[in-house]
Amino acid sequence: MRDELAAAVAAAEAGAARVRAAEGATGQVRSKSSATDLVTETDIAAGVAVWEAIVAHDPAARLVIEEDEVHDLTGAPRGSLTDSEVWCVDPLDGTTSFVHGFPAYSVSVALLREGVPVAGAVANVPLGETVAAATGLGARLDGTQIRCASATRLDEALLITGFPYDRGALLDRQLAALTAFLRAPVHGIRRDGSAAIDCTHVATGRADGFWEFGLKPWDTAAGVVICREAGAHVTGIDGEEWSVASTGIIAANPVLHPLITEVVLAGA
Domains of the chain by range and CATH? Predict the structure, then answer.
């Protein structure tokens, strides 16, 4: 597993280097699923760099990546999230922040086996740090072991969330949860636009919990194994065990997690 972890770190950092080189010069920006769902030339270039690092580790690797153009540019075999082994990549998580120069974007790389994340790395580009983990090996920030925070009550917790691209029913659910948490009350709520980074904040103890609706597996796969190895409990937004079919996430230490889940589900 150490080889897979090293490969995930190398791939995430290769993508981060490509993103860092493009800071301040995003190139062409276009929309995908909605006017607020952006993609840039840098997303694609970072995806190519990630794939080159992965295939250097494993010439037989298969890939699931948010930006499909990477397959066309590199010839990377298209994988499935339920393959016996597949790499799941978001080459630039937080594209909107990147476009605006807001310092909260990352490269997320995970290895899935039978749909379960077993190794992953998230390179926080503006901070120049990488958080990584593999099953049974713990979670580390630039090589230093990390653990999630120990808050046991909502009124002593700092939470993180995000807002969905779907500005209909999912947004209504999110606003209901946001209102409930603010009135709980909690210490505070933060939003920076990168679910991968948000997972690492829970793993490092910088935040106590994270919930978000409307996510894809590449947003969270690396964060799932990182949070688990840091001692956090991770589920889908419905409170059921996280899987590649999950459309959201709740992550927190095992005591705080059910309290967060109760509030989220109450507003469903």
Answer: 2-145 (3.30.540.10), 154-266 (3.40.190.80)
Give the separation between CA 251 and CA 160, rounded to whole angstroms: 10
Task: Put residue 121 in one of left, alpha, beta given phi > 0 → left and psi -120 to 50 → alpha.
Answer: beta
Instruction: Retrieve residue 124's tokens.
Output: 């926080």
Residue 227: strand, helix, or coil: helix
Q: How many CB atoms lie within 10 A of CB 34?
A: 11
DSSP code, position 79: -
Q: For the segment 114-129, what is each residue's pLDDT rounded down to a tens digit?
A: 999 999 999 999 999 9
8 Å CB contact between 111 and 4:
yes
Which tops the pLDDT comparison, 170 or 140? 140
pTM over 0.90: yes
In this predicted structure, what is the pLDDT of residue 27?
A: 62
